[in-house]
Amino acid sequence: MSSKTVPEALTAPRRLRTMRTMAQTDDITRRLGQRIRRARLAREMSLAEVAALTGRNATHLWKIEQGMIPNLPVPTLRLLAKALRVTPGRLLNDRTA
Q1: Which domains does the chain have, with CATH numbers?
Q2: Which of 22, 39, 72, 86 sits between 20 and 30 A of 16, alpha carbons compared?
Q3: pLDDT at res. 45
Q4: How far is it, in rounded angstroms, from Cα 84 to Cα 47?
């Protein structure tokens, strides 16, 4: 057994867990973006209108809706919820969106 094989064998399960965690995070981020988009469309608002209300760039908001922005900061989530006239919990919870 070479010294290179042992660390590889020990780190493979850790990498698998990390990849699984990243995939779960990506799924959560994607679903959050979908709920934000649905809330925006339910209010018949454009990205530009939400951008004006939140002080964020429309391109950045589009990336959030597409699930491209992981770890959305809480202040941004609150701004979006206020602009969309929903609670932050509604955006976070799958069952209520």
Answers
A1: 5-96 (1.10.260.40)
A2: 72
A3: 98
A4: 11
